[in-house]
Structure formats: C-alpha cells, structure tokens
Design a protein that fits this description.
Distance between the termini: 24 Å
Strand content: 25-35%
Largest sheet: 8 strands, mixed
Structural class: alpha/beta
Shape: globular
Radius of gyration: 15 Å
Number of helices: 5
Order of helices and strands: HEHEEEHEHEEEHEE
Number of strands: 10
C-alpha cells in the first residue's frame, strides 16, 4: 500500500472547520499507525470508540461508510439497508485524489468537507464520544458524537459486523 505524505497540514482544515462551528475537541498525537485496530492498541482507546472511514461505491457514487475500528463494513447489509442496487469497496486509486490534504487511509469521516455522503454504522453511536483520524496516520480527534452528527448529518444504518478475535 502506498501512503503519501502531504505538505499542507490536513489537521488544519479540519480544526478550522470545528473552530468555526464552536466545537469542543481534543487532538491526540500518537506513534505512526496505519490501521484503526493498531491505533486503538497504541492509544489504549477501545476499538469500538475509534471510527474508521471506509470508502465505498454506492450505485456508482463514492461515499464514506464509518464503523468502529473493531468492526468491518458488511457490504450486503449496507446495500440492503441503504436501498442501493450495488455497493462495493472503492479502490485506493479511485479515491486518493478526492482527499488531497490527507494521507491515504487517514481520511476523517467528514464527507461534507469532501462532497460525499456519510453512512454511520449504528454500532458506533452508542458512545458519547467519537475518535477518528485527522487526516494523518499520527493524529486523532476526539469530540462528542452529538456534535459530529450535527455537523456531518450522516445516515445512520445497521451495516457493520464485529471482527473476529
């Protein structure tokens, strides 16, 4: 997998957006980690509280499917619950240019900043707070889920499945 570094700070765009909307948040810096399960282990945050962003194609348009780190997207269930005809994972080549200010694989779940619809797994909304990549593989943001939901207006559906231990 190819992870590219970018010169402009991806965190800056996101924190400016949160600041403009008077959102309380905390930036957490951690050692380099390329997947949400590793981030959970490194930061000692339960995997069910870290949101990972998976890019999917839903009836020919790209969207974000957001699930807890300890879960995976069930594409069949997403298709059924969203009423779509076809749902598939997007390839890195398909989406990497959509997020010019982010490291590939570290996109924050703010589809509204990237003109993408956001689907959130209902398994993620049980906790008061949400943690997610802030555009890099070394930074997370922690904020209240209610604020995230107000800003992003995601479609909440049942489409995730717990990873096997």
């Amino acid at each position: 997998m190819n992870f590219r570094k970018v010169d402009n700070m991806p965190l800056k765009k996101l924190t400016e957006f949160l600041d403009r909307n008077n959102i309380e948040y905390i930036v957490i810096r951690h050692s380099l980690a390329y997947n949400a399960q590793r981030i959970a282990a490194t930061t000692h945050i339960p995997g069910k509280e870290i949101a990972k962003t998976v890019i999917v194609n839903i009836d020919g348009r790209m969207a974000m499917a957001v699930v807890p780190a300890s879960y995976m997207v069930n594409l069949s269930l997403l298709r059924d619950t969203s009423g779509a005809r076809k749902v598939s994972l997007a390839s890195e080549m398909e989406f990497k240019d959509r997020f010019p200010n982010c490291e590939v694989g570290a996109m924050p779940p703010f589809g509204n900043l990237y003109d993408m619809e956001v689907y959130v797994a209902e398994s993620l909304i049980d906790d008061e707070e949400i943690y997610f990549n802030a555009g890099t593989h070394t930074e997370l943001i922690r904020m209240f889920y209610a604020d995230f939901e107000r800003l992003v207006e995601p479609v909440v559906l049942r489409f995730s499945k717990a990873l096997s231990a």
